[in-house]
Amino acid sequence: MSNSTETALQGASESVREIVRGEVDELIASVDEYDDVEVVKVNGECWILLKGVYDPQEDPGAGLYPGWVPFPKGGEFLEMGCGVGLVSVAAARAGCRRVTALDVDPEAVRNVALNAHLHGVLESVRAQRSDLFSALGPDERFDTIFWNPPYLNPPSDRAGGDAHAAFYDPDYSIIRRFVESAPAHLAPGGRILLGFGSDGDVELLKRIADKAGARLEVVAEAVREYETSRRGVSISYWLIEVATA
Fold first, then answer.
1. Fewer CB in a 10 Å sphere around the end CB: N or C, the chain?
2. For the stretch 154-176, what's the b/e string if a residue is b when 16 or more beta carbons lie within 10 angstroms of its beta carbon?
3. How far apart are CA 70 and CA 87, in angstroms?
4. pTM
5. Which fold has domain 53-244?
6. pLDDT tens for residues 14-34?
7. Residues 184-190: contacts with CB under 8 Å, at least 24 apart
């Protein structure tokens, strides 16, 4: 890890992380209030949102990644945990030859296909249900693999149920599996990219990368203000490359 990356990747205080976790709990509790289908606006564009799929409006960082990810024009792109498909649609628009959008939630798979159709790129986007890379063939390779994972690391009494899985990854067990498994699906010269924020467990992510023999390099960063019911907090958002030897 370079000195500049080490300096940039500074986690938020525990008080800020606790405020964010409290806000997430309120959002999870209210999920049943939504209609089956909504139309939301992100970056000035309309997106279909199916009930139970993570609402990108709730994440101040979600709209950053479509403009940050260096899409491989003419190449193969994979978005893990595609949600409504903001990044997958952006990849297809940027000229990727094929975009693969994976999510463990079948409604998210349906959702990204709907948005690909809405934005005129359905022919370039393949959406599949998958537990990380389980739906892929052993020889499938990609020029870029991107994931904006659930990166809140909660106390043991905070995590449980499908709704929590959109936000919480206890002890980063899923992120760990991703970091270990993604290199097997990289084309020569390919890149693994993670969306992450200072409200996550930065030190744990560093330890996971170190154990996997990978380097963390910050590709892009921004600070966003996040209003909660308790007070406003500042969160740093990063696009991080997980560089393997």
1. C
2. beeebbeeebbbbbbbeebebbb
3. 11
4. 0.83
5. Rossmann fold (3.40.50)
6. 665 564 455 445 544 444 444
7. 184/133, 184/138, 185/78, 185/133, 185/136, 185/140, 185/141, 185/142, 185/145, 186/141, 186/142, 186/145, 186/244, 187/75, 187/76, 187/141, 187/142, 187/143, 189/143, 190/141, 190/142, 190/143, 190/144, 190/145
